[in-house]
Each structure stands twice: as structure tokens, then as C-alpha cells.
Specification:
The protein contains four helices and 28 strands. It has 323 residues and is mainly beta. It has three domains: 110 residues, Immunoglobulin-like (Sandwich); 81 residues, Immunoglobulin-like; 83 residues, Sandwich (Immunoglobulin-like), CATH 2.60.40.10. The protein has a six-stranded antiparallel sheet, with no helix packed on it.
Length: 323
């Protein structure tokens, strides 16, 4: 953890120089780009042949559509139809600027443009070259701004499985981890169904199966949420085991870990004492977490972690980033 924290501090010291070089030199093609500490979304109807009519599979030609309103709608605003309204900056181009810090730590760049509150235009994920977008390691580390990718791995720890459908000729896995690509992740046929194994970083993911062209959520997974098409996406949460350690305090009777991940409960996560101090292991979701130790009733930040922030009440808390 110390090495990781030192890594973050180092890049925070050079953020000004990185911002001036890497971010400003990135290509401004595609449906979004970075400009300093802002994310800039851009929509140009000339880049799209057709839009999907909300709630149906019907396609609409943009040439036949009079556009009066465009909004950005995605995971980051719970697919709101009100969304974030874009500003018309030229005859065809619409633009919306947002501060990077406006996004939570699980933002995976999954979004669409909503035109006239009725028509959906989906950016092509192939527009975005993640090698160019994420040259700023500080932003990737602290804000976790990354498009999650997935690669099939026969030894992968995450198993996607669909029971039955023995007569299907092809089953595809699509989700937020690959921008809902309809071709890339072809599942393997096994004796009792279809499966695909992969490794995924900790995080929150939504996914579906495509059985011979028909989309469906995972019938064996009770965790699901309604999407913008009024159907359901299945939900997968991959966690990471994190070790919290407090060195010293050999005479303490009780040490508690409390943080944003457990609503700051003062008696739930009791640490155990070892030769060097106090320790506890937790399975945690990806993102940014705040925490403190409580030593015999006295609250304190982590002395080994220099990354700290103040909350709205003036309290200072230690910060942990889980990727």
C-alpha cells in the first residue's frame, strides 16, 4: 500500500505538467475528449446514419429529423431522459463540458445521446483509442477514469454461464466491460449450456447474453436493473481483497476500522492484533473510499497514508482508491 500511495503522490506533484502536455495533445475526434480538467462531449448528427426510437427497435433517419434538443445520458446520471443538456455550438455540432470530478469513481464511459427526448444515438466504441485517452496516469489512478476491457481466459476467475439453449448456433456476451460489443465475446458451447471465463478488475458491471441475435438478461442472476429500453441488464460486482494495517499501538484494547464503505459504523469492523500492530482484510468494490481508525474510542486518520480529504463537516479522513 505504501508503494502505491507514493506512486499517487508522485503523480499528483506533476499533475500540472502532465495536464499541459498529455491531455491537451490528445485527439479531439470521437464523441468525447479531455480538455484540461474537463470532459467534453460532442454530438454531430452527420456522424450517425440512424437513431433508435425510444422503447422500440425502429430506426429513424437523421435526415428526416428536426433536432431541437440533445442530451447526454448514461450510467453516470442513471440514464436520465432529462440527462445533461448539450449546447449548440455550430450549425451541426452540440457540446457539453463537465468537470472530471463530477463523475464518480466507477464511470466506465457508457453513454448515449438522446435527441428530442425520444431518439437514441449510440457512439461507436471503436472511435475511442484508450491508449491515447488515458495517457495521464494520475487521472487514471485517482479518478479511475478507464474504459474497462475484458479478454476471454480459460483460467479466468469470473465465469459467465447460460444454461440450456442447446439448439442455439451462437451466443455472445455483451456488457459495460466491452461497450456492449455484439461480436467480440463469443461464448463456448458446453454439455449443459454456454460459458465464458475471464478476468475482470474490481468494479460494477452490467451485461446481457445475445442468443442467435436476441438479447436477454441472465435468467440465473437475480441482480438486475431496468435499462433505457425498458428491458433488464444483469448486474455483476467484482470485488478486491484489501488489507488495512495500523502499525504500533501494542497497548490498545480495541481498534475499529470505520469508513464510507460501512456507513462509519463504530463497532462493526474490529481489527485483530498481530506482531506489528493491527490488521483486517476486507472485500471491497472499486472506487474511492474514506476511512479512519478508532483506537479505544479515539478516532484518527491512517498515519501511513498521506492521502486525506476533508468532508463537508470539516473532518479529515484518509482516502483509499481501489482499482
Amino acid at each position: 500500500m505504501r508503494r502505491r500511495l507514493a506512486y499517487i503522490i508522485f503523480y499528483s506533484l506533476i499533475i500540472v505538467f502532465v495536464t499541459c502536455t498529455d491531455l491537451l495533445s490528445q485527439s479531439k475526434s470521437g464523441s468525447y475528449y479531455f480538455d484540461g480538467d474537463e470532459v467534453v462531449f460532442e454530438f454531430d448528427p452527420r456522424d450517425y446514419a440512424k437513431a433508435t426510437v425510444d422503447g422500440t427497435a425502429k430506426k429513424m433517419d437523421f435526415a428526416d429529423l428536426e433536432i431541437y434538443k440533445v442530451t447526454v445520458s448514461g450510467d453516470f446520471n442513471k440514464w436520465s431522459k432529462k440527462g445533461w443538456k448539450m449546447k449548440k455550438v455550430s450549425r451541426f455540432k452540440y457540446q457539453l463540458r463537465k468537470k472530471i470530478i463530477d463523475f464518480d469513481d466507477r464511470f466506465t464511459w457508457e453513454f448515449k445521446f438522446l435527441i428530442n427526448n425520444k431518439y437514441w444515438a449510440e457512439p461507436n466504441p471503436k472511435e475511442h483509442n484508450t491508449n491515447k485517452i488515458f495517457q495521464n496516469i494520475f487521472l487514471e489512478e485517482v479518478y479511475n477514469l478507464k474504459m474497462h476491457t475484458i479478454q476471454p481466459d480459460t483460467e479466468g476467475k469470473v465465469r459467465f454461464y447460460l444454461n440450456g439453449y442447446s439448439n442455439a448456433s451462437r451466443v455472445i456476451l455483451a456488457g459495460s466491460f466491452n461497450s456492449w460489443d455484439e461480436q467480440f465475446l463469443e461464448m463456448n458451447k458446453i454439455d449443459d449450456g454456454w460459458e465464458l471465463r475471464a478476468n475482470l478488475p474490481p468494479g460494477y458491471y452490467e451485461y446481457k447474453f445475445i442468443v442467435d441475435g436476441s438479447w436477454m438478461h441472465d435468467p440465473a442472476n437475480p441482480k438486475k436493473k431496468k435499462n433505457e429500453h425498458n428491458t433488464f441488464n444483469s448486474i455483476l460486482e467484482v470485488v478486491s481483497t484489501v488489507t488495512f494495517k495500523l502499525e504500533g499501538f501494542p497497548d490498545a484494547e480495541k481498534v475499529i476500522l470505520a469508513g464510507s464503505f460501512n456507513n462509519w459504523k463504530e463497532n462493526e469492523l474490529q481489527m485483530r492484533q498481530d506482531d506489528d500492530g493491527w490488521i483486517i482484510h476486507l472485500d471491497m468494490n472499486a472506487g474511492k473510499h474514506w476511512y479512519k481508525f478508532i483506537i479505544d474510542g479515539k478516532w484518527m486518520v491512517d498515519p501511513a497514508n498521506p492521502i486525506r480529504e476533508k468532508d463537508g463537516d470539516g473532518n479529515t479522513n484518509s482516502v483509499l482508491i481501489v482499482n
